[in-house]
Amino acid sequence: MPAAHSPSPPSGSPAPSSPGRIRVGSAPDSWGVWFPDDPQQVPWQRFLDEVAEAGYAWIELGPYGYLPTDPARLRDETERRGLTVSAGTVFTSLHRGPDTWDSTWAHVAQVAELTRATGAGHLVVIPSFWRDDKTAELIESPELTAEQWRHLTTGTERLAREVRERYGLDIVVHPHADTHIDTEAHVERFLDATDSDLVNLCLDTGHYAYCGGDSVKLIETYGERIGYLHLKQVDPVVLADVLAEGTPFGPAVRRGVMCEPPRGVPALEPVLAAARKLDVDLFAIVEQDMYPCPPDRPLPIARRTRRYLRSCGA
After folding, report:
1. Per the database record, which ranges form the Xylose isomerase-like TIM barrel domain (predicted)?
2. Per the CATH hierarchy, to which homologous superfamily does domain 22-311 belong?
3. Please, are residues 89 and 111 in contact by the beta-carbon 8 Å criterion?
4. Model pTM score
5. Spatial separation of the C-alpha atoms in residues 174 and 206, rounded to whole Å
6. Would you state the torsion angle of the CA atoms of residues 223, 226, 231, 236, taken in this order, to the nearest 10 degrees?
């Protein structure tokens, strides 16, 4: 569903200047969950118990198959813990052209069906990596050709249109390290080439900083395109080493490049302040990448992070 604007005042009354509402949540990622099934990850029941215990009311689905995929069971498990789903997540390779559409849609439709059944209104779309996140082997060039950019932008618009018409969901594209939508230049090129009525962003503050971007500047410049937030920080010391050594994203996470706020960058208080000035309701989902991690590590971090975000007014 589109971000909800404040209701119009009665005729003749001055317009209120109240800021938009920020709905804070967390995600399986913050519990070290990257895959549907992995012995290094906490069981989904523990994730749901602990995310509620940490003080969050909103969650994402995470990798499809980690949480129950039966809609009735999923609703029962979330509702009895006071949790509501904000979005599902899909991975796409739309820059590879029309031949990838059928396989892409099969994956998207599966996730979108479950996302709609939860009552959520967003689908987070993450582009595919250009290198293997474990071996650093190049899968394809980090730079797209002009034709590949056309495939990416037209394919994303088609995806947005189909998802909205069939499932009533809005897509938000997630700039991500080691993908073709990463740096400020790539993000701006993507936004300038896509229809704002169809395609908006999930701004992940950590990934954008990882790739050299300024989240506050992006919000202030392209505010009408910000449809969703992921709150995350990077450790600047670890990041400097990662960039100098050309470390791929997966191993960088294992080195602790994504850190607990407020220990890293960007500062989240000005990001949230800039987002509130947009005067729209936004989800702000905490995502601290830390796969793999000890099972007792996430909950204390989640509690501290929630307290910190409250101190930032969220």
Report:
1. 48-311
2. Divalent-metal-dependent TIM barrel enzymes (3.20.20.150)
3. yes
4. 0.92
5. 11
6. -60
